Amino acid sequence: MSCCRTSDVKSVKTTDAQAPSIYDFEVLGSDKKPYDLKQHKGKPLVIYNVASKCGYTDGGYKTAQELYSKYKDQGFTVLAFPCNQFASQEPGTEEEIKEFACKKFSAEFPIMAKVDVNGDKASPLYEYLKTKVPGILGTTSVKWNFTSFLVDENGVAIERYSPGAKAEEIEKKLVPLLERTAAL
């Protein structure tokens, strides 16, 4: 799957906070065909909210691609959800966002459709992620672009990373997950 697929997110089955895993959410392509999150069952992944005009853009996309390139052969993936909620730093269309990520950062991982990560229109997937792994002092809102969530092989969000998190920081929890899933 390349970054040239866009998706929307909608809730299925349960309420956001009660969802037992990301597999309880449906991600739809812009063609309205489902992108089944269950295809990642049994393997960890990282979910980012991304933006093209942010101070974290360069490092964030490079970290995401570095992790993806290094671990994709073990079934790992990155899902990137563009978000324009923070200082309007993702103003482009989905096509512009895909082109930017693919050309500037050689992004090979799926780039989804734009979503809100906070507020009344926040995507149900993000409501689940924020509730499952609160931020500093228990706050649930996403503070800025390139906040990321590590999801285990069962589809459960287990860690939240601040914008600017380096691959090495994420690998501290990711590598043991990959080792555990390889042993299954």
From TrEMBL:
User: Organism's domain of life?
Assistant: Eukaryota
Alphabetized, the UniProt keywords read: Oxidoreductase, Peroxidase, Transferase
Record-linked Gene3D superfamilies: Glutaredoxin (3.40.30.10)
Q: Thioredoxin domain location, by residue? A: 8-179
- Coiled-coil regions in this chain? none
UniProt entry tagged with the keyword Transferase:
yes
**InterPro entries in the record, alphabetically?**
Glutathione_peroxidase, GPX_AS, GPX_CS, Thioredoxin-like_sf, Thioredoxin_domain
Listed GO MF terms = peroxidase activity; transferase activity
Q: Is Repeat among this UniProt entry's keywords?
A: no
Q: Which GO terms describe its biological process?
A: response to oxidative stress
Any one Pfam family here would be GSHPx
- Which residues does the Swiss-Prot or TrEMBL record annotate as the active site? C54
Known SUPFAM superfamilies for this protein? Thioredoxin-like
What protein family is recorded? Answer: Belongs to the glutathione peroxidase family.
Kindly provide the name given to this protein in its UniProt entry.
Answer: Glutathione peroxidase
Source organism of this protein record: Bodo saltans
